[in-house]
Amino acid sequence: MSKFFPLWVVVTHFLNIFFLLLLARSGLEVLSAFPKLYWNDDCPPGREWARFSKKMYGADSRRMWSSLDEEEAWSPVLALPGRKNLGLGRHWHFMSVQFWILTGAVYVALVFATGYWHYLIPTHWSLFPDSIKAVGTYLHFQLPHKIPGQPYEPAQKLSYFLVIFVLAPFQIATGAAMSPAVLARFPRYGTLFGGKQGARSLHFLGLCAFAAFTALHTLMVIIHGIPTEFARIVLGDPGGSRALALGVGLAGIFGILGFHVIISWFSLRYRRATQRLLGVMVNPFERVISRVFTSRQHLARNDISPYHRINGYPPTSAEYEQMAVDGFADYRLAVGGLVEHPVSLSLAELRELGQQSQIVKHNCIQGWTAVAQWTGVPLRAVIDLVRPSAQARYVVFYAMDDKGLTEGEGRYGFFYGSIPLFLATNPQTILALEMNGAPLPIEHGAPVRLRIETQLGFKMVKWIKAIEFVEDTRHIGMGMGGFREDQQYYANAAGI
Ligand SMILES: Nc1nc2c(c(=O)[nH]1)N[C@H]1C(S)=C(S)[C@@H](COP(=O)(O)O)O[C@H]1N2
Ligand SMILES: [Mo]
Question: Is 444 a pocket residue for ligand 1 (Cβ < 6 Å)?
């Protein structure tokens, strides 16, 4: 091992390539679910600064549309796993990011512990003009000289510094700024990046920067000569055997590509198994942040979005339509299960339990946001009324929309969702009856919908028919805790 390319640099460099490719492909899967980028959290349709889709829906489209209609199926060659698998893409992303950050932390610790930082961190302003000169040298088709006593030439040192100490932390920071739990608990952190959409756009530009760096870095390896450069970074020995270096280097590259072929195939072929296996690593993380962060959002009236996207088509049954015509006068909300005092409440009785209002940001799992004021009954008041027994651990919300009739994609059955009790008693968890000061519009869940402000939108069941307290959710639906968890392989905890 040379002192410039110790074994730990060789290993972390390889792991970095490994995890970055996973992050990039799964990140594209996430983007495909809402292939539009905005600078503004209102996400007005048509005002995106980038759109990777031919489909266009306007706020005033004549036919009703739902945000799932905006989702694109991208090829598994590009996205991991591709073909509209947002839930699994997120699983791959959140699994990989934990190991990528771990790799980075070990690397940075060793960079400082070993004194390697001298080769990476600029200690003199002259690095900037020297870097410009080095770029000029390349443009004259010559190779610039290395900094005396160091492994890299000036432009190389500067670009490594920027990627490791600026771009990587920036991707982590903008990534965290997209989590609904983080945004609900620390709304001002989100404003650092111009809100969730700003963070999304910057995170995407960060991916572009990584891609540009990778392309340039690869070009440089080619220019400087592959067998020699491979000997350095693959064997850690500039004088090592060229043939061995090439062999090991190519084995590493094809190993990574082969792995991607296998996991892409596996994820598409065994979607439930992938959801469960990756969930083992991702769910605990999601649960912790869902548990420790409560929403502290009190946005201003003028933050309210002029247009709030819709997700999920309303119930199409004759009963629901008739109820809507009657202004939901005969509607009753059944609350039962593992409770001491089951009830069936009219809207007036529900309202009498006390109401609160909150101006908050909605975060759909697909990526869009919108701000609205929601008014309704704290779920805690309903809990106090029905008194769940000691065994009750989850609250299940049953909806009136049969997705088989409106959503297609092979999905079927009535929408439902569940939340653990600790989310049910959060101060901003309410059964909303009004939106922006008017009775809930049909599209947004009339007459009653759930709002939980630390979670992604799919947890907030609309058109609620009944609420059940249960010990376990495994016997309900396909057993994953909710309709979108069952049929779209989303994670059940939704704080990220
Ligand atoms: N009953 C029911 N509730 C639902 C859905 C649905 O399809 N049916 N979609 C969910 C999703 S994915 C989101 S993002 C939000 C959207 O809420 P909105 O339409 O009021 O914007 O509702 C959630 N609640
Ligand atoms: Mo959603």
Answer: yes
Nearest residue CA, atom 5 of ligand 1? Answer: 312
pLDDT tens for 385-409 read 999 999 999 999 999 999 999 998 9
Distance of alpha carbon 194 from alpha carbon 183, whole angstroms: 12
Domain ranges of the chain: 7-289, 297-487
DSSP letter string, 399-447 = EEEEHHHHT-TT--SEEEEEEEHHHHTSTT-EEEEEETTEEPPGGGTTT
User: Residues 304, 436: contact at Cβ < 8 Å?
Assistant: yes
Q: Is the C-beta atom of 68 inside 6 A of ligand 1?
A: no
pTM metric for this prediction: 0.96
- Please give the pLDDT value at position 1: 58
Q: What is the pLDDT of residue 408?
A: 87
Does any ligand 1 atom lie closer than 6 A to the CB of residue 457?
yes
SS (H, E, C) 101-127: HHHHHHHHHHHHHCCHHHHCCCCCCCH
Q: For residue 368, report the distance from its CA to the centre of ligand 2, in Å.
A: 8
Q: Which ligand is nearest to the CA of 451?
A: 1
CATH class of this structure's domain 297-487: alpha beta
Distances (CA, A) of 134 to 2, 141, 152, 158, 229: 25, 11, 11, 11, 19
